[in-house]
Every structure is written in structure tokens, then in C-alpha cells.
Design brief:
Elements lengths: L2 H7 L3 H4 L2 H15 L12 H10 L5 H14 L3 H7 L1 H8 L5 H19 L7 H5 L6 H11 L9 H9 L8 H11 L5 H14 L14 H4 L4
Helix pairs in contact: 1-3, 3-13, 4-5, 4-10, 6-8, 7-8, 11-12, 11-13
């Protein structure tokens, strides 16, 4: 445990509930446990990232990476994906679940990219969210990880932990995003987004969570 974090841990639970101390403690804990959080999806360029994120809806990153390893051998560009066709895409991505919808979305967004954007990925939220199968979270992932434009993608882990730690009301994903953007400096958004996801998967799970054993909940408290 670092000296800085240890000094905060020595405070009483009553003291750490102070919001500024809480945020400082959470940030330091995330930096100590997950200093260099990796992007969990395998990709080589903006297009392969986009396809992977579309596939990741209600599917584990491990499964997505297994599927894209096969898919990208067949098609790694919008042009190749269109040529591959909906049926073949569906056959390959079937292990991801919801493969009928996802295959149509991947085919149709690839077709739009070819016909409207010359095979390139658009770089605005509005254009990205207009693509089939691309919502605000997916657009945010693209903006921050593919184009390094400030964004704070909020998935179920982040939404859950922000509420659990008292950083947001948890009333909506949109509100959670707004609250976290106010709490963390813009230049930390990419790192914090990945750290909180990985922390939620490793230390602060949705089911069977024991707050007293969690490196953060045991200190700042836990709102289930």
C-alpha cells in the first residue's frame, strides 16, 4: 500500500465520506490497483474496434475476442464485410448471441461506411450514433479510444459502481456520465473509464459482493 493511500486509509469511515476525500481515495486506489488498464477488446484500427464494440453488447469481451479473431480473417474492412454478406457474418458471430440483429447491423453500418464515408469511420457523435447498432456508449468508446476525443463511456459496471460509491444517483446512465465527467478531470476520462470497468469485474462484482472485502467499498461505504 502506498504511503499516500495509507494516510487516507487511516481516516475513519465518517471522515472518508467527505466527497472530496472519497474521490481522492477512489482515484488513488484505482491508480494503485490498475495503473495501466488495457482496452479489453482486440482491434487494429477504428473499424475493427467499432465492430468489436457492436458485438460486445450482452456478450463477454473474451467471447468477442474469440469471434473477431475468426471474423477478421474473413473481413477487416467495411468493403470486405459487405462482400462477406449478412448470412456469413451471422454464422461466424453466432457465439456472441443476438447474432441475427448484430450481423444485420454490422453489414448495414459497413455498407453505409462504404457508400457515404469512403470506408472511413465518421468522427462525430451525431454521425456515429446514426449508424445501425451504434448507441451513445459505443460512440463514446470510438471517440475516446479510436480518435482520442474526450468522452466517458458508461457501461453497466460503471453505472453500478458510481451509484454504489455515491458518485451518482444511479437514476440513469446519462446522469451517471454527466456526474463522472464533473468529478474526474477530462484528461483522466479514458483511464478512469477502463479502471472502473476492470475494478467492477475484479473487486466489486454485482452478485455476491462483500463490501468489507472490497478495497474501495470497505473505506467509502457501499450503497447497494
Amino acid at each position: 500500500m502506498t504511503k499516500c493511500r495509507a494516510s487516507i486509509c487511516s481516516k475513519t469511515l465518517r471522515a472518508i465520506v467527505n466527497k472530496s476525500d472519497k474521490i481522492k481515495f477512489i482515484a488513488q486506489t484505482l491508480d494503485e490497483l490498475l495503473p495501466n488498464p488495457p482496452i479489453p477488446l482486440d482491434f487494429s484500427d477504428p473499424y475493427t474496434l467499432l465492430v468489436a464494440v457492436v458485438l460486445s453488447a450482452q456478450c463477454t469481451d473474451v467471447r468477442v475476442n474469440q469471434v473477431t479473431k475468426v471474423l477478421y480473417k474473413k473481413a477487416k474492412t467495411p468493403e470486405a464485410m459487405v462482400k462477406l454478406g449478412v448470412d456469413k457474418i451471422a454464422e461466424i458471430i453466432k457465439p456472441c448471441g443476438f447474432f441475427n440483429t448484430k450481423s444485420k447491423n454490422i453489414f448495414n453500418l459497413s455498407k453505409i461506411l462504404v457508400e457515404k464515408y469512403g470506408g472511413q469511420i465518421p468522427r462525430t457523435f451525431e454521425e456515429l450514433e446514426a449508424l445501425p447498432g451504434v448507441g451513445h456508449k459505443t460512440a463514446s468508446v470510438m471517440m475516446i479510444h479510436a480518435f482520442k476525443v474526450p468522452a466517458f463511456p458508461v457501461d453497466t459496471h460503471i453505472h453500478r459502481l458510481a451509484k454504489r460509491w455515491g458518485l451518482s444517483s444511479g437514476l440513469s446512465v446519462e446522469q451517471t456520465e454527466k456526474d463522472l465527467k464533473k468529478i474526474f478531470p477530462e484528461n483522466e476520462w479514458e483511464k478512469r473509464h477502463l479502471q472502473i470497468i476492470l475494478f467492477g469485474r475484479t473487486y466489486c462484482k454485482a452478485l455476491g459482493h462483500k463490501p468489507e472485502k472490497c478495497p474501495i467499498c470497505s473505506i467509502v461505504g457501499c450503497k447497494q
